[in-house]
Write a structure and sequence with these properties.
By secondary structure, this protein is an alpha+beta fold. Helices cover 31% and strands 13% of the residues. It has two domains: 76 residues, Beta-grasp domain (Ubiquitin-like (UB roll), Roll); 82 residues, DNA polymerase, domain 1 (Orthogonal Bundle). It binds FE2/S2 (inorganic) cluster (2 copies).
């Protein structure tokens, strides 16, 4: 999509520019047109389809990523504006087989229904917990206010974020024991689409 070889409706070849940025700790490059968004580059050029595409006007939060420490709607950021930046997407939350504490808490609290909004909710929640490690309920509601859930699973999502914050406040040794005891991957007979890990349910 961003190879820039197709002419636009008036027959003018769009110019492309090299883009270099860091995504989930890895240096990535692409050739992008000036009108392409960060969301298009993540999904189309880099194949990171965990970040969802929905309203494209900054209303739903499905495309939330962390850009240089701030949660942003990737559909509203031009790709070239992100040059040289650090981006974290849902694919960057888990470490090897260990789910992020938020992912585990979403599972344990039944916070994922259809799952479509969950990558954006998780990323917005991760940005929130980085800024406010032990948020109040009101702060969680405020931090996730830009992320809509068409399944209306807000209560479980808020509970999951509060649960994750509590888990992360435990001593490191207790957290390590929790991770070791947590089941890995999708439970036998489980529904992959219900697992809040976008890698198993790309859309
Ligand atoms: S797709 Fe970006 S906010 Fe809805
Ligand atoms: S879980 Fe379905 S949109 Fe939120």
């Amino acid at each position: 999509m961003t190879s820039g070889t197709a002419s636009n409706s008036v027959g003018v070849e769009p110019s492309v520019s090299p883009l270099e940025l860091t995504v989930n700790g890895r240096s990535r490059r692409a050739l992008v047109s000036s009108h392409h968004t960060l969301l298009e580059v993540l999904r189309t050029d880099l194949g990171l389809t965990g970040t969802k595409e929905c309203c494209l006007v900054g209303e739903c939060g499905a495309c939330t990523v962390i850009l240089d420490g701030r949660s942003v709607d990737a559909c509203l950021v031009l790709a070239l504006e992100a040059a040289g930046s650090e981006v974290v997407t849902i694919e960057g939350l888990a470490e090897a087989d260990d789910l992020d504490a938020l992912q585990q808490a979403f599972l344990d609290n039944g916070a994922a229904q259809c799952g479509f909004c969950i990558p954006g909710q998780l990323i917005a929640a991760r940005a929130l917990l980085r800024a406010i490690p032990e948020p109040s309920r009101a702060e969680v509601e405020d931090g996730l206010a830009g992320n809509l859930c068409r399944c209306a699973g807000y209560e479980q999502i808020i509970e999951a974020v509060l649960d994750a914050a509590e888990r992360e406040a435990r001593p490191a040794a207790v957290q390590a024991a929790d991770r070791a005891a947590a089941p890995k991957g999708i439970p036998e007979g489980g529904d992959p689409a219900a697992v809040p890990d976008a890698r198993v349910a790309p859309q």
